[in-house]
Queue: 2 jobs
Job 1
Amino acid sequence: MDFKKALLLILTFGLFTATLQAQTKHKKTTATHAPSAALKASIAAGLPIFTENCVACHQADGTGIAHMNPPLIKTPFVLGDKTRLIKIILNGFNDDVEINGERYSNTMASHDFLSDQQIADLLTYVRNSFGNKASAITMAQVKAVRAGK
Amino acid sequence: MKKRNLISAMLPVTAIAGLVLLLNACKSGSTDHKTGADTTSTTTSSPNAGLKLQSGFSAAVIAEKLGGTREIAVTPQNNIYVKLNNFKDGKGILYLTQDSTKATLTKSFGDYKGTGVYVKKGYLYTSSDEEVFRYKLNDKNEVINPDQPEKIVTGLLSRGEHEAKAITLDNDGNLYVNIGAYSNACQVADRKKDSPGQKGCPILDSAGGIWQFKADKLNQHYGDGIRYATGLRNVVGMDWNQQNNQLFVMQHGRDQLHDLFPQYFTTKQSADLPAECMYAIKKGDNAGWPYMYYDWQQHKKILMPEYGGDGKKEGGQTAIDPAAAFPGHLAPNGLLFYTGSQFPEKYKNGAFIAFHGSWNRAPEPQAGYFVVFQPFKDGKASGDYEIFADNFAGSADKAATGRAEHRPCGLAQGPDGALYVTDDNQGTIYKITYKK
């Protein structure tokens, strides 16, 4: 482990901590802010849905399985276009595409048996776990995509 | 308010803990980087290359950082061919020559990725995910014309899932190719909850079995081959048993019993089931996929839940029984019947199996990442298997989380009776030897 790397890491981590603390402070001043509480509730509701339906392939830490099941971490498929992401849950996904430069062979099955609310919570959980940070997906958004598919 | 204060107070502690973790992760990362530079690394500097072996055996890394090293063949001259499913410098086949302590990459060729490699009667046979090729060898078993292989088989199905085409040859001029099923359990919609199994599974017409072709006939298609065995979901480890003059294969059993049928299977049952089965194959055999699976705890063939099963109802009445059965999802990628004389007598004519390691045991701990020995007596599996070479993962924790450093894949026997194991995660070749 060379020194530059270590230094960089310490700096990065310092910043990260500072940001977190800043966020906490910020939250203090807006303690009754509704969206934050809603986001938290949706993330919490998403975890058991993730455990029941996704963990076997994508793993509990979202890292996936090399060559077979893609990671859910910092990929545009998770963090990008919400409609595309919702469609992956509703329709499944079996396109031969590269995800962050890697190909994955297993079929992702349709999970359209989940309710709109379950899909919203699940995706909000995934978009805010494993180091991801992105806006929530709402039940209304899932409903709209399902109706238009 | 109190809670939030607590979180604030915890933050620096969490940050320090996280930093320590990160630093450790980085440390092991940098060790990995060094392994290419012929200096110290955990793998090469620790005894037996970090492996845990049966007593009397030792292991050494003879080559590393070779890319996605899948199956391996060792020539009578003690040199090595290995097939890559990830290119090294744009090539998919490597030829390594050996001296006493290491193997040196001498030649690379073949502009296709794949899994299968086999040396037989003056030819090197290799496979991509759609085709099988062969290369004429000279009297030292060196490839004469690496840029002009003969195409033996072409147009095999490859639809992402179970795409690897494992190959082996018998002594009568026949080539055997695995064509894996592009499906988990032949559901109408693959891996979808509540989607039923297809009646008269159409996948079996062109996949989910072993096909036999002529080893010396060019450009063979499905119609030129024979569906030698069916009802095999996916096979990577296969070998011709010289004692029985018979094909043996290792099947990768189905995934996701709990995901798809939580009413019948706990996560623990889903991690252990179904068995990873060894089959002794006769022409025309049916191993039963997708209509049944084998339960190694009940010692029974069980009706597949997509076809009305519940984990208890028996099924597969016309399917053959396994020759041996192992716990679920360990992913047998290499099978080798040992015919050498270097190892103790009990190993002769028994089977080594390289278990690539699981992914479908989550949320239970992952397992595998080892080479197993299954004793044989009079051509039949006899007695319990032993874990012959363990800790390819690097530690128990790395195995449990599935973050294995090395994943055993291909097996081969050298002319002196040494056992070779490839790792397709980091492109390592291990050589395991025995001294009295």
Note: The longest strand of chain A covers residues 98-99.
Job 2
Amino acid sequence: MGPEPLEDLVVAFTRLPGIGRKTAQRLALYVLKSPPQEAESLAAAVRAARENIGHCTRCFHLTERGQELCHICRDPRRDTGMICVVEEASDALALERSELMRGTYHVLGGALSPLDGVGPEDLRIAELVERVREEGIREVILAHNASAEGEATAEYIHQRLDGMTQVSRLARGLPAGSDLDLADRTTLAHALQGRVQF
Amino acid sequence: MQLRQLSLRPFRNFARIDLEFAEGGAVIVGANGRGKSNILEAICYQSIGKSIRGARDHEAVPHGEGHFDIRGDWQQGQRRHPCRVFYGADDGKRVFLDEAPLPRVSDLVSHFQTVYFAPQDVALVLQFSAQRRRLLDIVLSQADAVYLKALQTYQRLLTQRNHFLRSLGHRGVDPTEREVWDAQLAKPGALLRHHRLLGLVEIMPDFARQYDVFSTGQETAGLLYADEVIESNPDEIPTRDQLEATFRQQLRDGFEKERHAGHTLNGPHRDGFVFTIDGEAADAFGSQGQQKSVLLSWKMAELRLLERRKGQQPLLLLDDVFSELDPIRSAHLIEMVEDFDQVILTAPRQPQESLGDRYARIDLE
């Protein structure tokens, strides 16, 4: 236990995902050791991000406050007939890194999980159905996590969109740059089932 | 496959102990309370990643300590595989195989197979339906990693579906969501039922044959799963697709009842699994002696199943069998395990039975 303000900072860091007590302490001590202006700019950046970032009214991805649509929905080069459905904005950011996704996104805001009190009405599924109906969508790509909840959410959306548009899902298989003999059995099974003609 | 070394530092009553095991096995001799069963429990940790007695991990941490650490050295053919199971009150459980950490504890299961028999637990094991299913789950998880994976997915989905059922008290039913949870649960559920039926059909002939050897009477032992008598004909087992369709139907039919109960009443987590003697449930009608014979026969059949499925003999662990079994059954047992790769026994004193020289004696001070 250090002085109280230090303790407060440590606790604040502990609340961040993936940060344990030890790391939180290290971060807090780093902040204290760094020049005052560095700590100041960190605080300013946190506040600015919090105040100036909102959600796109169409796809619910992150956008700058004052902009109704996010930079992807505003981009005229994007294929607006294709929606990639993701659980969180971080998933959209990950897919963007591939630089291959030419369509737009739809951020659900989570996955079905009655355990956490999350039902379909708590996710932006109605909004997705509305978009498919209104925007002439050719294809919906489900890019959910490979968890039990992700699968259930994908299945739910698939059923809700049944007959409205073409629905596809990401292939599951071997990670790039990894050795075959290190892959677990489930991954190998998916890779075999999803094999493609050479 | 043999266990050649075991180091506990600490584990339960042992602050520090190093044991060497001969290829053929060992008899661990020590008065009651010296921790004979704890050694077998530690060995099982290396095999199934958790307590064979169903204890929680923190219960195996000695008083005044913050962790337990079990290291084993296993021999498969010419190769040695160091294995380590570590549990810390702060960091939880971690497992290492060949010096490298495994991503999940469950990844360890199905590497080193063990069959554990403790006749003093026989009433406890046979009396409760959940305990009998656990018996089945442990052997099938060791036989096939796919089973364990499905079991974990099933339990996760079961929790979700139960919460879904409970949430319906304060909101309407979304029929699509209901369909989704049923469908998701039915997939691993059907796999579990399929593997269980296949496993039981395969075990059945060995189990019945072993019981003939151990039982003193003329009665016949059998198995019942979900009210069906297990016959030894694999062709009569429904396919996984059929089982999935049946399960979906059961969930549909039971929905109103389950909604009222607030949890899932049907599925592999509730399926009855019963040992029978002349068609009657062994837990209700069998004598103590018959029940011991039933469990012992089942364990011998487990050994044969694991041997066939994995292509190597599991390590057999026998906890205090001589005090609990009569001389005739003991003698049968010792004779029967004569050709097994490795057997580790415990006894409160040097057994009267002639064991042969394959068992190196280990004394617990």
Note: Residues 175-214 of chain B form the longest helix (40 residues).
